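Throughout our pipeline, every protein is held as a single compact record rather than as scattered files. Such a record has a labelled line for the sequence and another for the backbone structure tokens. This encoding replaces a full spatial description with a residue-level series of whole-number codes. For reference, a complete record is included directly beneath this paragraph.
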Amino acid sequence: MTSTPNALGKTSNALIDARDIKRSINLVVKNWYWFVLFIAMGVSAGLVFLYNATKFYGANSTILLKSKESMLDMSTEAKNSAFENKPDISNEILILSSRKLTNDAIEKLEVDVSY
């Protein structure tokens, strides 16, 4: 470590001189647009990556709900009123989307375990 004279002519044993800090700050201030440009590019690249990344934990499912009576077994009178079975299907949809059924499945599968 060498000693360098400061502005008052006294020697300083500091590792970093005040003039070095001022030069570094001036360099950053003069080239501020490069910092902004690279930060914007980094954020943009991160957003593009997250947008295109594969969702590892995503899940989709489809459930086929059959009515109690087959459409082929219906009489001609029932064929005219084929849409009367909608309440039966809507009830099944409500049961499948209920909170109790979801909570029971989570408890049974022990998904809420953490280590």
Q: What stands out?
A: The mean pLDDT is 75. The longest strand covers residues 4-5.
